[in-house]
């Protein structure tokens, strides 16, 4: 998405304000409030993208590796998931809100392609910027004056620079969960995936990425096995937890070790998240031992 988006002109004196603001209120209410929407919408986008990348099955780790048809499907998936999130029905276009037909347009780039049937109709504009991990959702009445003069072979036109000013933003340049693999140095990624077994890859992941929550999806991607959760458990000295413990590293799960995670002053983990750390004080070792972990002892 464009790094510099002009301020919206959609204020009370704007001709589209009454319609767009009423739709904004309805969308926010359906989402459970502005705060809930600001949490749930970004998470939904992350899921839509990751489910198409399919790292555990394909080994791909980025949007850029997708086929053209898969990139197109993300737009369809976002439309379906957004309707479900907001409990909306289908209409003549993609959905209906307050008896108004609304077209849902998604982009992973810097603009949206508006089809002829959506001209002069309300469009819900969704965008995800994978590089910057920022997301957008806005409403616009796709008037001719707001669209580019040029069109593609399907007669679709984009939002013009002038038209960008007539978008009412619900979320603009809002953070959303980053693609985990974009946050990891490529040398570390290579190091993790040089190992032949799921246990060894898992141990390499948590050895390199300590003190930060790791999602269940990442664990599945690294394990590359159906029984991926087995890779993070103790297993007669062969599991990732066993291998890490030999190096004095704890492997914790939010659901099982929430109290220990808090006591060690580690970042908050959701129940399905994992986190690794290396206790450095005698007190931390005692806390780990009380929780059932057997780490190499250090002197008081």
From TrEMBL:
Signal peptide: none annotated. Residues 41-278 form the Type II restriction enzyme NaeI domain. Gene3D superfamilies: DNA mismatch repair MutH/Restriction endonuclease, type II (3.40.600.10), Winged helix-like DNA-binding domain superfamily/Winged helix DNA-binding domain (1.10.10.10). One of its GO terms (molecular function) is type II site-specific deoxyribonuclease activity. It comes from the Bacteria. One of its GO terms (biological process) is DNA restriction-modification system. The keyword Nuclease applies. Keywords: Endonuclease, Hydrolase, Nuclease. Pfam families: NaeI. This is Type II restriction enzyme NaeI domain-containing protein. The lineage of its organism: Bacteria, Pseudomonadati, Pseudomonadota, Alphaproteobacteria, Rhodobacterales.
